[in-house]
Specification:
Chain A: Keywords: Exonuclease, Hydrolase, Ligase, Nuclease. The complex is a heterodimer of chains A (342) and B (528). Chain A has 342 residues and is α/β, with parallel strands linked by helices. Chain A contains nine helices and 19 strands. In chain A, helix 1 crosses helix 4. Chain B is α+β, with helices and mostly antiparallel strands and 528 residues long. The chains are: A alpha/beta (342), B alpha+beta (528).
């Protein structure tokens, strides 16, 4: 048991009185979904509940005829006496922490989150609770992100150096989340071309009423159009023929794992920017503290390390093994797995 | 340090040699002269004793951060590099230090004679005055060695691009004896110091593995064949009655081989000889493993000299009576050697006989049986070839024996270093011995990056036990391993030692039930 009404099962975290699961990794009847990444929003659930902006994304990724209920941030839904509400997690557009209250006892499930604002997703809001279930993707003190403006300057310098030499700046980032973030970061630096896989997600997000920066769809038939411009593509295309065809391409990988030299050099890209959609070490500790929770459950990432450290700091902390952060069959689409040092 | 930090960032990110050369040339174009000299020292210099012990640096870092030791350890094992771990976990800098590379390097050198307290405050002040990337570089400077993918050759090419001078001449200059304190950058690149330097070696001429059938090399009469030996390629420089031995890694190894020095004692002429340092006992060539005992030692004891005696097999002559004869034909150069060997009259120096052949056909069986004399195969050289600088295709070829292979299962995995530090790249492999598995070899190379990623994922999901950085894994993954030789060994648990084992391919079609047995491996010793 996680608290008096949440239970850890082999399908996911189950709310006993509410009869629903939080981001279940196996098919269940009712699932509340924190965000649209494939390891959190899986196919096969009879009913989904998620944020407005997440709905078109999971419809695009899973199926257009799934049963799904959309909610706004802060809107409270009563499910069999459990008060359920979604709160901004700052991970990507529509990403939510899930707050549950039953008989005065509050639990918050973080999903994936990032505390620093990125100018795109609704900024993370700490939610007070008794029990906090937190992710730990970057739960080591070596992972501490530079401020957004420092990162922006680095990226801007790289792009303008490339432009000065007539090189095409190619950014690799997951189609949901990272790609939109990169589009926002490079907005105004030059014409942006995006791969169709990214544009499909863009359209889904825009269909929910969220406008994204200007871009064009890359068409390799007209590759010379892209010369000296900016291209955003999914990381799976790294080293592919399509990327190689782009004239004078210089490639940058954008991922929190790029913080470590070994990971940067492993990919043999031209540049690596530690741009992450997850909280860094200080972010995790700060967020946990802000919840004022006394009990903390640590999921996917460096769960053992973070739980041990929290215990030493006076929390009652446990690690929780979940199905998050694992690669799905369709390939990697989140930051959890790919590029992670072992 | 800004230029330098920029250079490191560029170089470590690219695997394109030309991009590295450009970055180096750009550095030489923009950095001050003293910094250039220090940069060259850093990438060519010998390892210094580190002025600050690593455990002190770790201790100070823990003091600043307040983190528990185990958390530091956890970080270190993820990053795989102490200097980088410290650079990443320290808090944001509190001030900004802007010093040149040469200032940092000489300050760090002066730490050697400082009291510990002063060293501590110097290091802590530097840490808190630098950005993470600069901190990392600072920590590496303290360590005295930098391994970031700048080879001596890349460095020389960058320098050549900057100065417009010949790479070979620059290689000479850098290989000579100098230190940034007693030479200027201009003097170094113009090679003013090397005329006075008796030890000056020539760049080694290297051969490629043959990429066609020998018959396609043309007329057999134009070629010479000799056994290829797996010792240490060495260059003996004898000038002004002083002898120096250079290894192929362009390091002076003179003190490690006193018997060779002694043999050259009486030589009056100035000569430079290329050859192979080989361990031999009672006329038989020993294994490379034995020779390793002689390497990287400060003192070669009498005991070691009798246990692993070495001899020098002469291949080529680069300088004769003080004249560079590298452009003369090989046959001419070898003629010179014959007289020399006769005059030396030492049991330690030999000029191995060429393998006589008139048709290529005759060479095939010789090569196939090379392993019986502990040779790796044959070397084919064009009789008219000059002694090239570095690796040139066409005149010299390695024609090695096909390696031996066995199938073995992975039982331990360990993380790699440098760019491979995020993956499991070092594997311990086993064969079957009755109901048990027995370690047969360690292999570090042969898989593609994609395969390594896949194996790493397997290791993460199938690790049974953790011993520091080592993971015990379920014995499931089968690899075909290739190796150059095999011998009985008392030091190995399995009783056999493999020479230069590496992964030939991942046998996804095989399971642990299909691997070789110790018995079948030992058969190779007798029938190999």
């Amino acid at each position: 048991m996680i608290n008096s009404y949440l239970k850890y099962t082999d399908k996911g975290i189950f709310c006993i009185p509410g009869k629903f699961y939080l981001d279940p990794w196996k098919p269940v009847d009712r699932a509340i979904i924190s965000h649209g990444h494939a390891d959190h929003a899986r196919p096969g659930m009879k009913h989904y509940l998620c944020h407005h902006f997440t709905t078109p994304v999971i419809q695009h990724r899973i199926s257009s005829d799934i049963s799904v209920v959309s909610k706004a941030y802060g809107e409270v839904t009563d499910i069999h006496g459990v008060k359920v509400s979604l709160h901004p997690a700052g991970h990507l557009i529509g990403s939510s922490q899930i707050r549950l209250e039953y008989k005065g006892e509050v639990a918050v499930f973080s999903g994936d989150y990032k505390v620093a604002p990125d100018g795109l997703s609704a900024p993370f809001e700490p939610v007070q609770c008794h029990t906090f279930i937190t992710e730990s993707t970057f739960g080591l003190p070596i992972y501490r992100w530079e401020p957004q403006e420092v990162l922006f300057n680095k990226i801007k310098n790289w792009v303008s150096q490339n432009q000065a030499k007539g090189y095409t700046s190619i950014f690799l980032g997951y189609s949901l989340g990272k790609a939109q973030r990169i589009m926002k970061l490079v907005e105004g630096l030059g014409q942006v071309y995006v791969h169709t896989a990214i544009e499909n997600v863009n359209k889904a997000i825009e269909s929910a009423g969220f406008p994204l920066p200007d871009r064009q769809i890359m068409n390799i038939e007209n590759k010379t159009d892209m010369e000296g411009k900016i291209v955003v593509a999914p990381p799976a295309l790294f080293g592919s023929k399509m990327i190689k065809k782009i004239p004078h391409g210089r490639t940058a990988m954008c991922s929190g794992w790029m913080q470590v030299r070994g990971s940067r050099r492993w990919r043999a890209v031209d540049a690596g920017f530690a741009v992450s959609d997850h909280a860094d070490w200080d972010g995790l500790l700060g967020a946990i503290k802000a919840t004022e929770a006394s009990k903390v459950f640590v999921t996917h990432g460096y769960q053992a390390t973070l739980a041990k450290y929290l215990n030493e700091k006076g929390y009652e902390a446990y690690e929780l093994l979940t199905g998050y952060g694992e690669k799905d069959e369709a390939g990697v689409d989140t930051e959890n797995e790919e590029n992670k040092p072992v | 340090m800004k230029h330098f930090s920029q250079l490191i960032s560029t170089v470590e990110m690219t695997n394109k040699t030309n991009a590295k050369i450009d970055a180096l040339a750009h550095y030489f174009d923009t950095a001050p002269d003293t910094d250039k000299l220090h940069l060259i020292t850093l990438f060519t210099g010998k390892r210094r004793r580190r002025p600050v012990r690593t455990n002190l640096m770790r201790e100070w870092c823990l003091e600043i951060t307040g983190y528990p030791e185990w958390l530091f350890q956890e970080c270190y094992s993820t990053v795989g590099d102490l200097g980088e771990t410290i650079a990443l976990i320290l808090p944001q800098p509190t001030h900004r230090l802007d010093r040149s590379l040469s200032t940092w390097m000489s300050e760090i050198k002066s730490l050697e004679s400082m009291e510990e307290e002063k060293v501590e405050s110097y290091v802590k002040d530097a840490w808190m005055g630098l950005e993470p990337q600069e901190r990392f570089i600072f920590n590496k400077l303290i360590g005295g060695s930098f391994r970031i993918g700048i080879s001596k050759k890349t460095l020389v090419n960058g320098l050549a691009k900057h100065t417009g001078r010949q790479p070979a001449q620059l290689m000479h200059s850098l290989m000579g004896q100098w230190s940034p304190e007693n030479i200027s950058f201009q003097e170094l690149v113009s090679g003013e110091h090397i005329n006075y330097d008796d030890s000056r070696p020539y760049p080694f001429c290297l051969a490629y593995p043959i990429d066609k059938s020998v018959e396609d090399l043309g007329d057999a009469d134009d070629w010479q064949a000799e056994y290829k030996w797996d010792g240490i390629r060495g260059q003996v420089v004898r000038r002004n009655e002083k002898t120096f031995i250079w290894s192929r890694g362009e390091e002076l190894v003179t003190p490690q081989f006193p018997e060779i020095i002694e043999a050259f004692q009486g030589v009056k002429d100035d000569v430079v000889i290329d050859g192979e340092i080989l361990p031999l006992k009672d006329g038989n060539v020993l294994l490379f493993n034995d020779l390793q005992k002689r390497l990287n030692r400060k003192n070669v004891t009498k005991k070691l000299l009798t246990e692993v005696p070495v001899e020098f097999y002469i291949y080529d002559c680069l300088e004769w009576n003080g004249i560079d004869i590298r452009e003369k034909p090989l046959s001419f150069r070898r003629q010179k050697l014959q007289g020399l060997v006769a005059s030396i009259q030492s049991p330690v120096v030999h000029m191995p006989k060429l393998i006589a052949f008139t048709k290529w056909d005759e060479l095939h069986p010789v090569r196939e049986n090379a392993r019986s004399v502990n040779s790796e195969g044959l070397m084919l050289k064009e009789r008219n070839s000059p002694y090239h600088t570095g690796r040139k295709k066409g005149d010299w070829w390695k024609w090695k024996v096909d390696p031996l292979t066995i199938d073995a299962v992975m039982i331990y995995a360990q993380r790699g270093h440098g760019r491979r530090s995020g993956h499991y790249t070092d594997y311990t492999l086993a064969v079957r011995d009755g109901d048990n598995l027995v370690t047969i070899a360690k292999a570090y190379s042969g898989l593609t990056d994609k395969e390594i990623t896949e194996v790493s994922r397997f290791v993460r999901q199938n690790a049974i036990e953790k011993f520091g950085p080592v993971r015990t894994v379920k014995p499931e993954l089968v690899f075909e391993i290739a190796f150059e030789g095999i011998a009985l060994s008392r030091r190995h648990k399995s009783g056999v030692a493999l020479r230069f084992p590496r992964i030939k391919r991942w046998r996804k079609d095989k399971s642990a039930a299909d691997i070789d047995t110790l018995e079948s491996v030992k058969q190779l010793i007798y029938h190999g």
